[in-house]
Amino acid sequence: MRVIIVLLLLVISNITNCGKAQIKSAESQNPESKIYPEVEAHQKLLDDTKIIYTGIGSTTAPVDSIRSLIDQFYINQFRHFQDPKAPYFMFMSKDANIAMGVGGVIRMRGWADWNGSIPANGFAPYLIPVEKDPTNMKHLGATPSGCAVFLTILGRKSILGEYIGYIEANFNGYKGVGFQLKKAYFMAGDWTLGYATSTFSDPAAQPPTIDGAGPNGHVSRTNILVRYMHSFKKNWTIAGSIEIPSSQIDDSGEFTKKCADWVPDVSGFMQYDWNSGLSHIRLSGLVRVLSYRDIIKECNRDVMGWGLQLTGYSKIGYPVTVYGGIGYGKGIGSYLVDLSCDNTDLIPDPSAQGYLYAPGSLGITLGLKYNFTSAVYSTLALGHLRYYPKSGIESTSYKYGMYGAINLFWDITPRFQIGAEYLAGKRMDIGGMHGNANRADALFQFMF
């Protein structure tokens, strides 16, 4: 293990020195040219995109106009670190008013568990076995889950203004290889309609990880929705949405039964950004209605669920980015990484037969990213999720989970990336019993 660590440090040092030499060379030619590594990486991606012109005529649009259209692909308040980049090839009209691209991601993750194995591709502390299974203490695994193909249409100067059509499907369904729709939405002006990331979520505030699940305390949810989002006074953005609900209610007892969802989830946020969009802080809220039937009294009951969270990220100097988020709510378990592993939106009331209630939950996420160069960076990601059911619940029920990850990424080219990561997690039960897990994973990724 020490030999591996020493070799890894030597590789990092070599890559870092090469990258710094390139940066110093560029700065010596133009001292004012130093830019943030994220901006530099973005510019490399734009330069790497190949344009195939369509239509009649020999003239083409200016480069700035072309870049502006491709940039629409990235102007999205809900982009996650693991989302695909703009397609390598894009078909574009001569006047650069409409473009179409087909792209994809080849993503292979491999991992090794020891001291207890989590029975999932994602590292979710909720799933850590509290009682060790001697036949499942170590595990070597790999998955193509996360491989994706997508189609996007970008346009402007129409009756709709600027618009984006996007559809993405991932190989993360049955056994990690089943083809499954991930997103399908249409954006025009301030409106979004379709299957998209919930407005209550803030993916950009999540620190980069190789692990597909990410820190256990953050909100991760995709819904069919209608969203209005508007930016004003340069730095402010507000949003509100009506989202089709999908509740996870524990009706395993004999006295209650889940009712069909019939009231949409309502979510919104207010955000302030600065540093040319490289930093933001966001306050989000969610209100929902959860319904069940009391079999004893033969009546249906509605319970109000709600959530609030403060999230954001910020550049600190040239190489450092910090991430953070804290949220609390009741009846929002299906929106949280850890609690979505079970039916936790409503659970049986131990003091009253025939009644369900919305338990509270507190999620915290912290992250720190350091860019050695624009192509080599490392992240520390921490997560904590605490569950607040009423007293009287079974001692084997989940109380809290802790998540930690440290990684190293190397973008060998703008579209070819490798990485390595160490993960540690802990699950604590109500009765005081706990389990731990460790994982080392690696990433090979090619985007086109």
Short précis:
The chain has helices at residues 2-29, 37-48, 63-71, and strands spanning 50-54, 89-93, 98-114, 139-143, 148-155, 163-171, 179-188, 191-197, 222-232, 236-243, 256-258, 265-274, 279-294, 299-316, 320-330, 347-348, 356-357, 360-371, 376-388, 398-413, 416-429, 434-447. By secondary structure, the protein is mainly beta.
Explain what you see:
With 448 residues, the chain is mainly beta. It has helices at 2-29, 37-48, 63-71, and strands at residues 50-54, 89-93, 98-114, 139-143, 148-155, 163-171, 179-188, 191-197, 222-232, 236-243, 256-258, 265-274, 279-294, 299-316, 320-330, 347-348, 356-357, 360-371, 376-388, 398-413, 416-429, 434-447. The strands form two sheets. It has a 16-stranded antiparallel beta barrel with strand order 3-5-6-7-8-9-10-12-13-14-15-18-19-20-21-22. A two-stranded antiparallel sheet has the order 16-17. It is globular, with a radius of gyration of 23 Å. Mean pLDDT is 88; it is low at 1-33.
Fold topology:
Layout: H1 2-29, H2 37-48, E1 50-54, H3 63-71, E2 89-93, E3 98-114, E4 139-143, E5 148-155, E6 163-171, E7 179-188, E8 191-197, E9 222-232, E10 236-243, E11 256-258, E12 265-274, E13 279-294, E14 299-316, E15 320-330, E16 347-348, E17 356-357, E18 360-371, E19 376-388, E20 398-413, E21 416-429, E22 434-447
Parallel strand pairs: 1-2
Antiparallel strand pairs: 2-3, 3-4, 3-5, 3-22, 5-6, 6-7, 7-8, 8-9, 9-10, 10-12, 11-13, 12-13, 13-14, 14-15, 15-18, 16-17, 18-19, 19-20, 20-21, 21-22
